[in-house]
Every structure is written in structure tokens, then in C-alpha cells.
Amino acid sequence: MMERLLKRGLCTFELKVIALVCMTFDHVAFFLSPALPIPWWFRLIGRIAAPLFIFLSCWGFDYTHDRVRYIRRMFCWSVGMDLCTAVINFLTAGRAEVRIDNHIFSTLFYILYYLYWIERLRARETGRSRPVKPLLAIALPFLLPPAASLLLAMLTANLGKGPLRSLLLGVLSALLPCPLFVEGGVLLVAFGVILYYLRNRRRGMIIFYCVFSLLTGGLQSFMILALPLLLLYNHRQGRRMKYFFYLYYPLHAYLLYGLQLLLLARGA
After folding, report:
1. Which of 132, 170, 202, 264 pairs with 32 at a CA distance of 20 to 30 A?
2. In Å, what is the CA distance from 46 to each residue of 40, 41, 77, 224?
3. Buried (b) or exposed (e) across 31-55, using 16+ Cβ within 10 A?
4. For residue 236, is it left (φ>0), alpha (ψ between -120 and 50) or beta?
């Protein structure tokens, strides 16, 4: 069986399913640990998920016929989940020990966003035209969201640190996400960008992936477990259930969050 798997490899659909399963283990531990004794290795299995999602998004960027549409779709899912999360956290303020926080959509969006503008920058350098617009687009996400958040924080200072102020800041961060504060931060965004440019250089990708995994340290270093799966990618699509994967992420997170609230309420 192993020999057959090594020969056939894993398609996009199969890697996505593996990523979803690993992510679910991770989120079960993340959301339910305050109420239930969850085995520690659930979080360890979860380290496999993000690298798979990032890897497949990089290849999706390479294969798609419309990169702008692909990036726009990822941004819409990021904004949609952030807005829903801000409302849910507002309505359940003070009732949960672990709130819904970051998500992978915003990280994937910025990886795709920077890949798009880096490619535009490379094309302009080839044509010897001025790279002002790509450079501005690359820098702007680091400048505009923090400035807007600071301004909103000053305007809502009279609200204190209550849930309404948190809701307003959550809505702003949804509409203007900052790469510094997405899931995994700017390091994971940079990881995705570099992984894209090493996607066809097997040896280079293996070395980079191993070094990055070791440097992250702690539990996150177990992302190294995803590397053999990446190397088994056979570049085939497999079954097409695109929106199932998009929908599963927020829905399962909200269900687990709701279950945490229910268990904590009963325990109280």
C-alpha cells in the first residue's frame, strides 16, 4: 500500500481533506480544552494543517487563470469570517475562556496578495518601467491598517475597553487586515511567499522547510510532519468541492466555540 501511495502521490483534494482533519484536531483542543481533558497531541497533529493550506494556495496561484479573482475571493472569505467573528465575540463577551481569534484566510490572502505584486514588480523590472505602484502596494498593508486602528482607538477612547469598542476595532481589522497580526504573523506570510518560489526546486524547498520548522521552535516546529505530504503532491485536482473547504473552516470553528460555551455553562 505504501509503495502504491508513493507511486501515485496525493492530489489536491486528498491533501485538503488531510489538512481539514488535522485542523479539526487542533481546533477541538483549542476550543474545548477549557472544558474537557483533550490529549496534548491534538495540537501537535494540528501543526500539519497550515503548511498544507499554504502549499496548495501557492500552487493554486500558479494554476489559476484569474489571479485577481482568486485573491479577491480569499479576501472576501477573510472579511466575512472576521465580521462574523467580531459579532459573535461581541454577543458572547465574558462567557468564553477561549475566544475565536485569527484564521488562515487572512494569511492566505496576504500570501497571494504579495505574490501578485512581487510578480508585477518582476515584470516591471524586466520591462524597465518604474516600480512605484507595486512597491507602494507592498508597503501599504503595513502602514494603513495600524494608522486606521490608532485613529479609531482614539475616537472610541470614551467607550473604555468594553465589548462595543472591541466590536468596532474587529470590524475595522476585518476590512483592513494587517499582515503583522494575521494567523502566524508576517513570518508565515513570508514562509508562503518563499515556498512559492521554491515549489519547483525540490531540494531547495526541503532545506528551506526544514530550517524554517526548526527555527520556529516549540510546538510549531512539528509542522515538519507536513513535509512528506507536500512531497507526495502529484499536481492532480481530484474531486472538486471548492466551497465545501471554504465553508467548513468557519462553520466548524463556530460550532466548537458554541460547544465550549455550552460546556462551560453546564460546568458552572
Report:
1. 170
2. 11, 9, 21, 12
3. bbbebeebeeebbbbbbbbbbbbbb
4. beta
Amino acid at 186: V
Contact 179, 186 (CB under 8 A): yes
CA 175 to CA 76: how far, in whole Å?
9
Cα distance between the two ends of the chain: 49
- Indicate the average pLDDT of the chain: 87
Taking a C-beta distance cutoff of 8 angstroms, is the pair 229, 15 a contact? yes
Give me the pLDDT at residue 91, please. Answer: 86
Alpha helices (runs of H) in 92-201, residue ranges in sequence order? 104-127, 132-155, 163-175, 185-197
Neighbouring C-beta atoms of residue 72, cutoff 10 Å:
13
Cell numbers linked to 82: 472576521
Where helices occur in the chain by DSSP H, the ranges are: 2-8, 12-32, 41-46, 49-63, 67-91, 104-127, 132-155, 163-175, 185-197, 202-216, 227-231, 242-267
C-alpha cell at 90: 461581541
Give 226-267 pLDDT, tens digit per residue.
Answer: 999 999 999 998 888 778 999 999 999 999 999 999 998 887
Digit-coded pLDDT (tens) for 3-45 = 777 778 899 999 999 999 999 999 999 999 988 999 999 999 9
Residue indicated by cell numbers 532545506: 207
